[in-house]
User: Which sequence fits this backbone?
């Protein structure tokens, strides 16, 4: 048994006992409040989900199993001094709650390498799609197609008992995470680089190999890729992608079906696709003013034009966060430390950060005027020559799949029920309101 699986096997009985006791002995304790406003406005702030992999504080931002982003970057094993931590180390942390040692990450990396074999029919299915099919559609379809490989579904059909669901689910999760960079790089090469595939380099770690297979063989980009894949993993349970996957998984749909469902949610412009939209907004802003870094006044004018056209400014605002997203801060600090600030696109993103929060405050609608993760990520890709904005959400998806699968393994280990909340009618709301 691998260290990862063994660690989970050791911990799950106690976690299960906690959950059983909570349901049996304290199931009536009230933790949240459902109101008419919440029911009609996206259940914002409604406490009705449980997620142990990470927690999002509105002011502080995300903590992965208790670690902030700077803490996780500092504490997780790294491929070398001065380099970013292995994203797979963060996945180990999300799954188990334990910081892995360097040896434990090496073992997980080796396991993923051995599993990174994508069935040939997946490439065949991708090749059958029109070349201009959006990369997120390709990505989702490829993941769905691999449901054919699900060890969970095969074991379930063979009579797997509920107590063992998590083990087969973990197997699917490991297979999926191993294969995602291969699939994503295939989509990238096919869509933008004439289709010639680059084989994995067995000497590279999971994150760096993704950069290599995309064809960006630059050590700095590989390091950025590690950072990118680490910060996008998990954002507690209620975000659209994680929540969607959780709901689908609660019907015991396998990991492939559950993750692809979440990926379809990530593909929406108010969620993960905002990274694509943001880069496009930045480029259009620059084009609008002659292709240069716009002045503060020009940014202000363009931001107001966007708002007056009743469009959102992509990369700003958040459903939970009420402060600058620490994922944004990590990328901004990275760009400044690496001296990227003079690149016109990076410089424009930094100028937008100086101006747009003030505009949004003046506009007065958005509850948070501050940038989220998507406001910065595209500029760093452009810096390294990855200019194809339509691909950016696939990068996000590769990372988010780690958070989603960690959540699903936990859900299955705890034996959580089918998710089936109750809906009411507008007439019932009116009656409740005394109308
Ligand atoms: N630009 C313009 N208007 C904005 C805005 C923005 N960036 N952010 C919020 N608003 C508006 C909302 O559209 C809403 O308007 P209406 O009353 O007309 O519906 C109003 O301000 C109140 O919204 P809110 O309560 O502050 O925000 P929500 O929780 O409803 O929505 C969103 C959160 C992230 C969807 C929103 O801020 C937004 O659309 N931002 C731009 C898109 C974006 O960056 N999405 C990525 C978010 C992070 C993420 O999931 N990444 O994957």
Assistant:
């Amino acid at each position: 048994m691998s260290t990862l699986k063994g660690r989970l096997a050791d911990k799950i009985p106690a976690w299960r006992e906690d959950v059983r006791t909570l349901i049996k002995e304290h199931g009536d304790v009230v933790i949240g409040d459902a109101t008419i406003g919440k029911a009609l406005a996206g259940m914002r702030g409604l406490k009705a989900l449980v997620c142990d992999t990470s927690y999002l504080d509105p002011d502080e931002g995300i903590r992965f199993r208790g670690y902030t982003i700077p803490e996780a970057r500092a504490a997780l094993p790294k491929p070398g001094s001065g380099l970013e931590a292995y994203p797979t180390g963060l996945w180990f942390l999300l799954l188990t709650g334990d910081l892995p040692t360097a040896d434990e990450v090496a073992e997980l990396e080796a396991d993923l390498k051995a599993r990174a074999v994508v069935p040939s029919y997946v490439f065949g299915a991708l090749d059958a799609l029109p070349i201009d099919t959006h990369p997120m559609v390709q990505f989702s379809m490829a993941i769905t197609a691999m449901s054919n490989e699900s060890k969970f579904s095969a074991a379930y059909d063979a009579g797997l008992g509920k107590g063992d669901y998590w083990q087969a689910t973990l197997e699917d999760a490991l297979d999926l995470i191993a294969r995602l960079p291969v699939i994503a790089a295939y989509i990238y090469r096919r869509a933008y680089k004439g289709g010639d595939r680059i084989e994995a380099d067995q000497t590279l770690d999971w994150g760096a190999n993704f950069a290599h297979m995309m064809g960006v063989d630059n050590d700095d980009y590989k390091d950025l890729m590690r950072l990118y894949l680490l910060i996008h993993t998990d954002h507690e349970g209620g975000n659209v992608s994680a929540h969607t996957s959780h709901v689908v998984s609660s019907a015991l749909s396998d990991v492939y079906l559950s993750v692809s469902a979440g990926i379809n949610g990530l593909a929406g412009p108010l969620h993960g696709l905002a990274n694509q939209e943001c880069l496009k907004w930045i480029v259009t802003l620059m084009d609008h003013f002659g292709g240069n870094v716009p002045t503060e006044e020009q940014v202000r004018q363009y931001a107001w034009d966007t708002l007056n056209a009743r469009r959102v400014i992509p990369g700003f605002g958040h459903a939970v966060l009420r402060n600058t997203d620490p994922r944004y801060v990590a990328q901004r600090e990275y760009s400044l430390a690496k001296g990227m600030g003079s690149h016109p696109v990076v410089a424009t993103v930094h100028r937008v950060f100086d101006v747009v929060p003030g505009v949004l405050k003046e506009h007065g609608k958005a509850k948070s005027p501050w940038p989220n993760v998507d406001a910065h990520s595209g500029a760093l890709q452009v810096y390294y020559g990855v200019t194809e904005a339509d691909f950016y959400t696939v990068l996000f998806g590769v990372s988010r799949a780690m958070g989603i699968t960690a959540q699903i393994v936990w859900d299955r280990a705890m034996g959580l029920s089918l998710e089936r909340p109750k809906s009411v009618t507008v007439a019932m709301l009116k009656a409740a309101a005394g109308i």
Observations:
- Residues 44, 239, 270-272, 274, 307, 312-319, 365-368, 372-374 surround HAX (CB under 6 Å).
